[in-house]
Write a structure and sequence with these properties.
This protein is of the alpha+beta class. It folds into two domains: 226 residues, no CATH class; 85 residues, no CATH class. The protein is built from eight helices and six strands. A hairpin with a 5-residue loop joins β4 and β5. α2 runs antiparallel to α4, α2 crosses α8 and α6 packs antiparallel against α8.
């Protein structure tokens, strides 16, 4: 049962904890967003795919932000409590540091469970989904955006030129299209048009309005010219390979799968060592939350006369060194 002091300590910790976690995750996402927008534009993909990719990266960034948020939350809370003499009042009432640690260890346990779910199950699936979106974007499965004023190769032996694009590419104006086949080629100009999906994911429909079609068949003495109010052209997309199944990489494997593969004698020693190192890294990453309160409280307590905040910097530095040490030990394994 939580006492009034336990609830007060947790209340002081939660505000900076939530704020730090949100800010850290947001900064990481914004930094990645710029690179993803550049990547998507270069690949000619739709802009909304960036947000789907960022959604799949969010569990990874949350896993990075949780330890920092817990450390800063406890450090800032105890700095505030010590500067306002509330810490002295709590100590004089007979409540010692071991008793104050109890709600913080309960919070650490909750965050350790959340982190285990993130790194053990959520992140592997989100990492796989992110890789799948990246594969689809490179292969053109998500659809390439039409660049205005440029000749674009779409489908098989089809060249398209668009003078103007409106409504995010839904309406195209000033269209020129050339389709080549064994008999010759067909040139089409249209005032406007747009792309529509079909029941087959390997085929799209280009609907044109108010245009003219010129059939340049080599077997004919002269080209045939056709004027139309509306014309539908089916465009077959190039065949693409299916994305691989999940697994094969340690980042895409859950905790039970990592443990099974680390004991798989059919794999090479190098592969088993990679799975084993990543498995123990995830376990140690969750156990770190139980160490943070013992580090954060001394770093947060400060002298009321000086009010120096060097403990905050020292605590963050120690956490960074600890994480670098963990990464180095995983590489060594």
């Amino acid at each position: 049962m939580l006492t009034r002091v336990d609830k007060y300590v947790l209340k002081q910790v939660m505000s900076p904890l939530v704020a730090t976690m949100g800010i850290a995750a947001l900064l990481l996402i914004l930094e990645k967003m710029l690179k993803l927008f550049d990547f998507v534009v270069n690949q000619g993909g739709p802009a909304n795919i960036v947000f789907r990719m960022l959604a799949n990266l969010t569990p990874k960034y949350l896993g990075l932000a949780l330890p920092v948020a817990l450390l800063l939350g406890i450090t800032i809370a105890f700095r505030k409590i010590s500067l306002s003499s509330e810490y002295d009042a709590i100590m004089s009432s007979g409540v010692g540091l071991p008793r104050i640690l109890r709600p913080l260890l309960m919070l650490a346990l909750l965050m350790a469970v959340l982190n285990t779910l993130l790194v053990g199950w959520v992140q592997p699936y989100s990492q796989y989904n992110y890789s799948g979106l990246e594969f689809d974007l490179r292969s053109g499965a998500l659809g390439a955006s039409i660049r205005v004023g440029e000749f674009v190769e779409i489908g098989e032996d089809i060249t398209l030129l668009v003078e103007e694009s409106r409504d995010g590419g839904a309406d195209l104006y000033g269209i020129f299209l050339e389709r080549k086949d064994k008999r010759g080629s067909i040139a089409v100009t249209a005032e406007r048009g747009g792309f529509f999906s079909t029941g087959d994911d390997q085929t799209i429909l280009l609907r044109l309005f108010n245009g003219r079609l010129v059939d340049l068949n080599e077997s004919q003495n002269k080209p045939r010219v056709l004027s139309f109010d509306r014309q539908d052209l089916k465009i077959k997309l190039p065949a693409r390979d299916a994305f691989r199944t999940r697994g094969g990489e340690e980042l895409e494997m859950t905790l039970p799968e990592l443990y099974q593969e680390s004991e798989n004698t059919r794999l090479s020693l190098t592969e088993r060592a990679a799975f084993n190192g990543n498995f123990h890294w995830r376990i140690m990453h969750s156990l770190t939350f139980f160490i943070i309160p013992f580090l954060a409280i001394p770093m947060g307590l400060t002298n009321k006369r000086t009010g120096r905040g060097s403990g905050l910097v020292i605590g963050l530095s120690l956490l960074i060194v600890y994480n670098e040490f963990m990464e180095g030990m995983e590489t060594a394994v």
